[in-house]
């Protein structure tokens, strides 16, 4: 029953419980019991029969007790469809009631939770069914997502946590279990005695942020470095160095259970843990292979232990070490992230270096903004490394309030009480009345287009209870988006406009033009078009550029959907494109419907000025566009403009 006791948290064997609390030795291997309290001292006497014990316990037990479910009292007799009464009348329970006495029998039936294994099923005999937790899901993989979470509050591990994780779902004898438990306790005790911070400072030579961010020039003066991508990537820690750091720690507390050859295998697993990409992980099979049981000192002095049991214990041990020890150490001392250009490779930085650089960058970034209104809610900023610094992102769907946790709960409750459904719905009605009462031409057009979006009050706030900063305006977002789009004209284009505005315009044009998608540094929505055209014209000084992929906007065969077809090429092969002729050299692609995309004899020759005037004005986009991943003129790399792929192909983004 060791396996079942591990599945049902808080339960123990019935015979061990009776021996420890009552002092009576019985044999009940297939019975589990759960009672978190203290058992009182009661006399042991036998004056009641089993039906009398069951009848008294039925009258005195609580409503949630499984023993009283399905019973009804008719006159002086209890009648029921509950089958537990027949189980308690068995010979095994008759001997148990006789050994522990009437008082203890009534106490156990009324106040404890008892489960018995009958055949292949676990039957609840007495107690509350809600007190039994659900079966824990078996974790058979390394949780590498811990690398991208916040810093762990503590590196402490408890003996109970280790025993529960390693001995979970394992059938093992009592003698072998005690031997393994003693080795686990010794391992945890050695780990708790380690000075992890001192080991980290002595092993990882870390430069202070001031010395890393400043350097001396030829005149001896101190000048500040720019937050370039090169300087940021230079601060990264090699995964091999972190693996050596974890291996050094493992040798100090895993000596009682691993041999020299096992340590070499463990080091290879640590390197795999840190060098795999952001979406890969290790399962229990990857962790347990290449370990030889003969070199595994953890099972020394264990007798009659099958090979399958050894493998199961080994898998549980390695999963516990990687999830609860190694990943916590990495998250505590290092910051793990991906970059804006490489989504798969993980970069590791020390916490001091990362926090110093990001704090300085955020302070300089926030100087460009002005405080308009103070609020008690805020969203945490996150920095992602890129080529010339950081990209700042935030998740506005996560609501956070200032103060402690109690203050956070009070703030949420007060916010919900103040901003009630009635008040919000009244605001929504006021907005609808304003839209209906306005008589201006622009608002009249807007009212006609968004009249179908005004819904009853019961449907006005479907996301009111969601934990979002934008939940209070979620129902009127389509209205606000439409008003903002009409106010800004053609400066704002989203993916909805591809089918609504862009494709109908391109559908009836015969000439072919090229739209080059550009990513400008610190570029916002409302851009003066003359300044933008002048900037791009000065940037495109060369006639020949290179691209790696392009796409075409087209309708599907039914004509009810607009799709973008991307044609990608090998990243090692670059195709030249002549801006004067607007024609890639050496390409001859055909659409699926048979129409030619790019062909030497059919591509219309347009000038560079025509490209700037007609292609980069957003509404006058071509029927196909060039999606440039890496673009440069021969012998020159454009520093002011970077070309990046985006999902929304017609927006200038920062």
TrEMBL record:
It catalyses: DNA(n) + a 2'-deoxyribonucleoside 5'-triphosphate = DNA(n+1) + diphosphate. It is found in: Nucleus; Chromosome, Telomere. Keywords: Chromosome, Magnesium, Metal-binding, Nucleotidyltransferase, Nucleus, RNA-directed DNA polymerase, Telomere, Transferase. GO terms for molecular function: metal ion binding; telomerase activity; telomerase RNA binding; telomeric DNA binding. Its EC number is 2.7.7.49. InterPro entries: Telomerase_RBD, Telomerase_RT. Its main location: nucleus. It comes from the Eukaryota. One of its GO terms (cellular component) is telomerase catalytic core complex. Telomerase is a ribonucleoprotein enzyme essential for the replication of chromosome termini in most eukaryotes. It elongates telomeres. It is a reverse transcriptase that adds simple sequence repeats to chromosome ends by copying a template sequence within the RNA component of the enzyme. This is Telomerase reverse transcriptase.
């Amino acid at each position: 029953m060791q396996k079942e006791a591990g599945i049902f948290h808080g339960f123990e064997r019935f015979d061990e419980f009776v021996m420890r609390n009552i002092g009576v030795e019985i044999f009940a291997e297939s019975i589990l019991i759960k009672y978190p309290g203290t058992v009182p001292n009661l006399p042991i006497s036998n004056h009641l029969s089993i039906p009398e014990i069951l009848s008294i316990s039925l009258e005195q037990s609580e409503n949630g007790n499984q023993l009283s479910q399905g019973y009804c009292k008719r006159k002086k007799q209890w009648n029921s469809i509950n089958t537990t009464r027949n189980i308690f009348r068995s010979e095994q329970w008759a001997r148990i009631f006789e050994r522990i006495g009437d008082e203890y029998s009534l106490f156990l039936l009324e106040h404890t939770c008892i489960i018995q294994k009958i055949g292949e099923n676990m039957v609840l005999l007495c107690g509350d069914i809600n007190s039994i937790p659900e079966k824990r899901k078996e974790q058979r993989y390394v949780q590498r997502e811990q690398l991208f979470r916040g810093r762990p509050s503590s590196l402490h591990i408890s003996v109970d946590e280790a025993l529960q994780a390693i001995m979970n779902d394992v059938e093992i004898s009592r003698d072998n279990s005690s031997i393994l438990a003693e080795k686990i306790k010794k391992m945890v005790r050695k780990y708790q005695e380690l000075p992890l911070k001192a080991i980290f400072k002595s092993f990882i030579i870390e430069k202070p942020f001031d010395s890393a961010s400043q350097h001396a020039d030829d005149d001896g003066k101190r000048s500040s470095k720019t937050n370039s991508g090169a300087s940021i990537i230079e601060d990264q820690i090699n995964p091999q160095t972190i693996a050596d750091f974890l291996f050094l720690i493992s040798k100090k507390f895993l000596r009682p259970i691993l041999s020299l050859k096992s340590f070499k295998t463990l080091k290879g697993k640590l390197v795999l843990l840190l060098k795999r990409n952001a979406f890969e992980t290790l399962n229990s099979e990857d962790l347990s292979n290449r370990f030889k049981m003969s070199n595994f000192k953890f099972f020394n002095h264990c007798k009659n232990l099958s090979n399958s049991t050894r493998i199961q214990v080994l898998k549980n041990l390695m999963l516990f070490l990687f999830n609860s020890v190694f990943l916590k150490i990495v998250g505590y001392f290092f910051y793990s992230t991906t970059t804006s250009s490489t989504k798969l490779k993980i970069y590791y930085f020390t916490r001091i270096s990362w926090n110093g650089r990001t704090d300085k960058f955020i302070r300089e970034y926030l100087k460009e903004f002005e405080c308009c209104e103070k609020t008690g809610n805020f969203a945490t900023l996150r920095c992602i490394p890129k080529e010339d610094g950081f990209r700042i992102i935030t998740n506005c769907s996560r609501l956070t309030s200032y103060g402690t946790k109690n203050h956070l709960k009070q703030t949420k409750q007060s916010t919900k009480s103040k901003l009630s459904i009635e008040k919000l719905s009244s605001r929504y009605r006021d907005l609808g009345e304003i839209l209906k009462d306005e008589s201006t031409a622009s608002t009249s057009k807007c009212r006609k287009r968004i009249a179908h979006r005004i819904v009853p009050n019961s449907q006005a706030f479907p996301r009111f209870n969601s934990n979002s900063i934008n939940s209070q305006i979620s129902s009127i977002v389509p209205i606000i988006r439409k008003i903002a789009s009409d106010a800004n004209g053609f400066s704002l284009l989203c993916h909805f406009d591809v089918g609504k505005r862009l494709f109908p315009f391109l559908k009836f044009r015969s000439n072919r033009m090229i739209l080059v998608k550009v990513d400008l540094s610190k570029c916002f929505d409302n851009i003066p078009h003359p300044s933008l055209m002048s900037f791009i014209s000065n940037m495109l000084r060369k006639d020949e550029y290179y691209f790696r992929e392009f796409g075409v906007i087209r309708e599907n065969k039914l004509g009810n959907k607009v799709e973008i077809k991307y044609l990608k090429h090998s990243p090692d092969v670059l195709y030249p494109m002549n801006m004067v002729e607007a024609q890639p050299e050496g390409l001859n692609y055909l659409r699926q419907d048979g129409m030619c995309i790019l062909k030497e004899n059919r591509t219309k020759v347009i000038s560079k000025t025509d490209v700037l005037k007609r292609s980069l004005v957003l509404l006058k986009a071509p029927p196909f566009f060039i999606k440039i991943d890496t673009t440069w003129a021969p012998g020159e790399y454009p520093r002011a403009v970077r070309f990046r792929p985006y999902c929304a192909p017609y927006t200038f983004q920062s």
